Structures are given as structure tokens and as C-alpha cells.
UniProtKB/TrEMBL annotation:
<keyword id="KW-0238">DNA-binding</keyword>
<dbReference type="GO" id="GO:0003677">
    <property type="term" value="F:DNA binding"/>
</dbReference>
<keyword id="KW-0804">Transcription</keyword>
<dbReference type="InterPro" id="IPR036388">
    <property type="entry name" value="WH-like_DNA-bd_sf"/>
</dbReference>
<keyword id="KW-0805">Transcription regulation</keyword>
<feature type="domain" description="HTH gntR-type">
    <location>
        <begin position="9"/>
        <end position="77"/>
    </location>
</feature>
<dbReference type="InterPro" id="IPR036390">
    <property type="entry name" value="WH_DNA-bd_sf"/>
</dbReference>
<dbReference type="GO" id="GO:0003700">
    <property type="term" value="F:DNA-binding transcription factor activity"/>
</dbReference>
<protein>
    <submittedName>
        <fullName>GntR family transcriptional regulator</fullName>
    </submittedName>
</protein>
<dbReference type="Pfam" id="PF00392">
    <property type="entry name" value="GntR"/>
</dbReference>
<dbReference type="InterPro" id="IPR000524">
    <property type="entry name" value="Tscrpt_reg_HTH_GntR"/>
</dbReference>
Length: 123
């Protein structure tokens, strides 16, 4: 992961997103331990409190839980929770705004679908 120190996103949010990506991709499977705040802070040269703040965002969502004396672990169902949250964010951030702009420009639903299909073909 590369932290963008000059990004508008706070570092703890970037850490939260990085851990979320690792959980969604299966790099850290459900039931497995995540890196400790110390490991994260040393590896990425951030304050341990910053690392903990990013982890706590996932704890608050019920994606990560603490086993006393052992560390933090990925909850069962975490992948589904994270995907559902990201899909909702995707809808609000991209799809709704795209549709709003398309209406302003007079672009039809079929034209948008064709544009999206072309985008998938370019992969």
C-alpha cells in the first residue's frame, strides 16, 4: 500500500480502505488475524494512534473484532458487509451523478449502457 500524505483523505481513512481491500480480496480471510497497529505503524511510518483509528473504523462497522490478548481478527460476514457498503457508495458516488449528468446532456439510458459496455470491452 502507498499512503498519499498529500491526499485530501486522512491517513487513517486510507489505512481503513487498505485493510478493507485486503479483506474483500481474500488476502486476509474471514477469521484470520489482521496486522497489529504496531506492525502497521512501523511498516508505513505512521503514528500507532493513526493506525488504531483506521482499524477502529472497521471495528465500529463490525468487520473486525478483538480477541483479548491475541489481536484483531476479521469477522465472519465481513466481506459481504464491506461489498454491500462499497456498492451503496458506488451507486451514490458514481451512478447517481452519472445519470444526473446524462439527463442534463440529453444522453439516453441506452446510450449510457452502450458507453458502459465499451468501457468493459477496453479492459
Amino acid at each position: 500500500m502507498e499512503l498519499r500524505l498529500k491526499s485530501e483523505k486522512p491517513i487513517y481513512v486510507q489505512l481503513c480502505e487498505w485493510l478493507s481491500d485486503m479483506i474483500i480480496s481474500g488476502t486476509i480471510p474471514e477469521g484470520e488475524q489482521i496486522p497489529s497497529t504496531t506492525e502497521i505503524s512501523v511498516e508505513y511510518k505512521v503514528n500507532p494512534a493513526t493506525a488504531l483509528k483506521g482499524i477502529n473504523m472497521l471495528v465500529d462497522k463490525g468487520v473486525i473484532f478483538k480477541k483479548r490478548g491475541l489481536g484483531m481478527f476479521v469477522s465472519v460476514g465481513a466481506v459481504e458487509k464491506l461489498k454491500a457498503e462499497r456498492q451503496q457508495d458506488f451507486q451514490q458516488t458514481y451512478v447517481d451523478k452519472m445519470c444526473e449528468e446524462a439527463k442534463k446532456l440529453g444522453i439516453s439510458k441506452n446510450e449510457i449502457i452502450a458507453m458502459i459496455e465499451r468501457g468493459f470491452e477496453n479492459e
